[in-house]
Amino acid sequence: MNGSTVTLMDINKERLETIYRFAKKYSSEVKSNINFQKTMDRKEAIKDSDFVINVAMAGSHEYYEKMRAISEKYGYFRGINSVEWNMVSDYHTIWGYYQFKLAQDIAFDVEALSPDAWLLQVANPVLELTTLIGRTTKVKVIGLCDGYYTGRRDIAKALGLNEKEITFVAIGLNHDIWVTEFKKGNEDLYPLFREWIDKEYPSFYKTWYEEVKSNPLAVHVSPVMVDMYKTYGLIPVGDTVRNGTWKYHRDLETKKKWYGPLGGFDSPEGWKFYLDREKKEAEKIKNVVEDPNIRVSSLFPSEPIGLDPVVPVINAIANDKKSIIQVNVLNNGAIDGIPNDVAVEIPAVVDAKGVHIDKSYKLPTKILNFAIRPRIVRMEWALEAFLEGGKEILFEWLVDDPRTKNDQQVEEVINALLSMEENKEMAKHFRG
Amino acid sequence: MNGSTVTLMDINKERLETIYRFAKKYSSEVKSNINFQKTMDRKEAIKDSDFVINVAMAGSHEYYEKMRAISEKYGYFRGINSVEWNMVSDYHTIWGYYQFKLAQDIAFDVEALSPDAWLLQVANPVLELTTLIGRTTKVKVIGLCDGYYTGRRDIAKALGLNEKEITFVAIGLNHDIWVTEFKKGNEDLYPLFREWIDKEYPSFYKTWYEEVKSNPLAVHVSPVMVDMYKTYGLIPVGDTVRNGTWKYHRDLETKKKWYGPLGGFDSPEGWKFYLDREKKEAEKIKNVVEDPNIRVSSLFPSEPIGLDPVVPVINAIANDKKSIIQVNVLNNGAIDGIPNDVAVEIPAVVDAKGVHIDKSYKLPTKILNFAIRPRIVRMEWALEAFLEGGKEILFEWLVDDPRTKNDQQVEEVINALLSMEENKEMAKHFRG
Question: What's the rounded mean pLDDT across residues A416-431?
């Protein structure tokens, strides 16, 4: 990427300044000659780009925490947004009106100002937003998530395998991916995995349990992984284990049973841990920027570019370095049994010509039926809510929910959420 | 149908004898020259047929009532089978193991013994069974239901329209059909319908309310019809109003609010009323057979062949009388947004060459998303349960159900149902 220009854009001036200085400092440390720009004007940032990376969250964590608190007041533990196969806390679907609008507006800008650019949709909900942008614009969009990479790392480590020596194909929907090929050379590793569950998991579990006492985010090898494998027949990867039915998420007690003493990533304590960590990371970045004695590299002891597929995708396309990368793109026949206009997550060949889906994948009917189809229904509902509005759609989202005791509860929670000062525009969208 | 042979088949000798005598008596009354046969051997009945009509219910109403009672003991009002968009009481899906097996076995027999025959699948669940047979056999299957016809009749009557003068196209899935075209000549009747709701429904409702005090089966013009129209945007027809979300079915009180003082067709009282009526009908048939002074025709004052599309379909195919008939067939592109291998209900041209789907229909996304897609998920789950077995599938059916308080409740109701003496074979299927 030598010689390229990276334009950072934020609506928050202070944050923009910090990350700009951070980037410049890092760049000079590693002696890159990337030209950094900064702007608070989105259109200026997007104009004439080759790649646009959307990592924005409209509102803020605080905004969603406020909606979560209101939901819980009316009996909706973890918020009305958290439903079967959408239990990941920062995956804002039904209440993501502003997030959808922002992502679509960015895509419209790309369409108008950089029609040949690749839009890398990193901000969640990747499934909904990649599908939305794929359906409603002509933009070349790729949804990207690090879940596959962190999941693969943790599973390989747990089984004592060298990540680089294995074939580990996981397909499905974002946060709902399943290992269809697990091999070392020609050797199927599923028998080894089953043996590991039977013989080693009980003692592995003890070590894991000790770890999650202080780190609730270590979920990839939780008992949910084992239980999902036994229930659905394939290994769930990455954030898939944070997902699932109410079996794992009914209440705090249930979450503790499955995800350890803090209740896992998406419990009150786990999520607070995550938000606090995010704040600390932001503080660290500020410190690095302000303290000439700290090197940026010291923040990343071993993985300077992290596990994110963003740089590999840009490298593959911009430099024509043919690579297999885990991407989210409209299905178009890649996975049997999933409609063509739904964004699937698959490993695809990426090069200067783009993303190539050169084969057709299959999922067992059990996974299609119980993990994929219900998730697609919720995705369609969230898109319908955003595209069409109508208060009755919010009602439909909740009427069959196991947390709902009666219609009044649904009416009340919807009204409370739409009455928030921050939700004026959203209320207009839904109430007409 | 002059000169044709109709073979009646039943595993119950007494019932077979009664219906055989009933048919012969009616035939002689109307001076038809149909040749009636009877047999208790299914294969004999099916061999060399042009049409096979499956109206069989495996087990009996009592068997399903027993499963319903056990379900209710564990907190599942109206049974584990009754879930969102499958609230019709005799539509046995997840607990329909024997019903699915019987229907598939009949289809296999048709495939082997009368491969050119048309199989008319009248027994419910028409959606599941038509799809199952369409997917797993080469049989020419048509699912048939009278819901469209009785619904059209009742709606036309309520609005003071002559049924014969209107275009009334309803499409979707069986028990989940919606009026996409409602016209008299070129005049769209939807404005008239809206006016009727605003101006006349309040007084119409009072008359309706008086009627359902003694006849809980009068549901087609219940407030649910109006509410579904307002929620989803099109008129629901026939048994569609008995369906829907938990909004209409959460508990007896809710059912009474929507379906009148007895709680409608699919309430404890309503369903008992229906089963009692069925018993009385059977008694009447017995009486007619045994009493030479009663004519069969006296049982059908005005509609000798009822509203069922069975005879019209046979007439259209056998006599090449081109007709438009409401049928259930695999979609194959008939309705946009529904997979090709799902049985849809549509009006189709039927003649000697079969069923012709010569146009493509569209449903509003709101109906596709909220009424059709969730129903297809349940259909797929019921088929998976039948084809693959596995106790975990019964668990998945209930884990996200609003009636479920915890996993133990699910385990207990499943174990109680599978422990029934009648369910030995079913238990083996699910427990392996």
Answer: 98
Q: Do B245 and A402 touch (CB under 8 A)?
A: no
* Residue B74: closest CA among B393, B423, B404: B404
Q: Is A406 on the interface with B (CB under 8 A)?
A: yes
CA distance A344 to A327: 8
Helix, strand, coil shares, percent, chain A, to 5: 50, 15, 35
Q: How many structural domains does chain A have?
A: 2
Residues of A in contact with B390 (CB under 8 A): 366
In a domain, B25, yes or no: no
For residue A360, being part of any structural domain is answered with: no
- pLDDT > 90 fraction of chain A, expressed in percent and rounded: 94
What's the one-letter identity of residue A418? L
Interface test with B, best of A77, A83, A128, A247 (most B CBs within 10 A): A247
A64 to chain B, minimum CA–CA distance in Å? 24
Domain span holding position B249: 180-266
Residue A12's contacts (CB-CB under 8 Å, 6 or more residues apart) are none
Quick check: is A231 in a domain?
A: yes
Among A266, A282, A311, the domain boundary falls at A266
Amino acid identity at A77: F
B313: in domain: no
pLDDT digits (tens, 9 = 90+) for A166-202: 999 999 999 999 999 999 999 999 999 999 999 999 9
Least confident among A343-352, B25-34, B78-87, B125-134: B25-34
- Measured CA angle at A52 (ends A51, A58), to 5 deg: 170
Taking CB atoms and an 8 Å limit, are B390 and A366 in contact across chains? yes
Q: Which of B266, B297, B315 is the last residue of a domain?
A: B266
Handedness of CA A253, A259, A261, A264 (dihedral sign): negative
Nearest-neighbour CA in chain B from A187: distance (Å)? 28
Q: What is the pLDDT of residues B169-211, one digit of tens each?
A: 999 999 999 999 999 999 999 999 999 999 999 999 999 999 9
Of B231, B373, B400, the CB nearest to A245: B400
Burial of A14: CB neighbours in 10 Å, binned 0-12, 13-18, 19+: exposed
Q: How far is A150 from chain B (nearest CA, A)?
A: 28
Cis preceding linkage at A292, omega within 30:
no
Q: What is the mean pLDDT of residues B70-88?
A: 98
CB–CB contacts below 8 A, A to B: 82
**CA B330, CA A347: separation in Å to the nearest integer?**
33
Contact A365 B388 (CB under 8 A): yes
Helix axes of B391-399 and B373-388: crossing angle, nearest 10 degrees: 160
DSSP B102-157: HHHHHHHHHHHH-TTPEEEE-SS-HHHHHHHHHHH---EEEE--SHHHHHHHHHHH
The separation between CA B134 and the C-alpha centre of its own chain, rounded to angstroms, equals 17
Res B305 pLDDT > 90: no
Give the distance from CA B140 to its chain's centroid.
19
Q: How far is B247 from chain A (nearest CA, A)?
A: 6
Nearest CA in chain A to B396: A370
Q: Does A400 touch chain B (CB under 8 A)?
A: yes
Residues of chain A with C-beta less than 8 angstroms from the C-beta of B366: 384, 388, 390, 393
